[in-house]
Amino acid sequence: MDTLLHFVNLVLHIDKFLGDFIHVYGAWVYAVLFLIVFCETGLVVLPFLPGDSLLFIGGAFCATGEMNIGLLIVLLLVAAISGNTVNYMIGRAIGPRVFNSHIPFLERFLDRSALQKTHNFYEKHGGKTIVLARFIPVVRTFAPFVAGASEMTVSRFQLFNFVGALFWVLLLTLLGYFFGNIPFIRQYLNVIVLVGIGAAVVPVVLGALWKMMRKKAPNADSR
Known about the structure:
Elements: H1 2-12, H2 14-25, H3 28-42, H4 52-63, H5 69-99, H6 104-109, H7 112-133, H8 139-149, H9 154-179, H10 183-187, H11 189-222
Helix pairs in contact: 2-4, 3-5, 4-9, 5-8, 5-9, 7-8, 7-9
């Protein structure tokens, strides 16, 4: 519980955390931002790390001259692309082995046909999934792992991995650069962060619920 509260406090006060870190450690802030973005996108066990808000606030500090916008964008691009690549490779290495382990206990809970369906989905819609997932917390951490586990084509994955990272990093850092220091935004940054997360997550949840309801409807009618 304490860990969760600490995380929420970090996300909601990321501007204060980042500002204090810059004043104490200076250029080491680039390494920290690189590491956070890399871990959030590259390690499936760390989806809770701040991503969107970190990029936005980083851009805001660049506007004040405390950081360099060009260097920040390049480093974040490398972190986002390499993080997704590592996540994809982990999924590609682990996924098929788990589904083909022939361990009775696992075979009860794993459906190989579901893995094949996921593979077909990613081959058909994986491009836009990888790009759009960049803007949805938690989903962006799991999307490359699932793409790897379902054996999405490497070249196709890397193409959309680069495109998604480019849009994500440029959009959020430049929004922070041009608008992050406006007094109103600074004052209500916590609310904006929460609204932004909600705006990204709610449509996905509603879409999933709608699909579930549509699948159940024919079954109900057949009775």
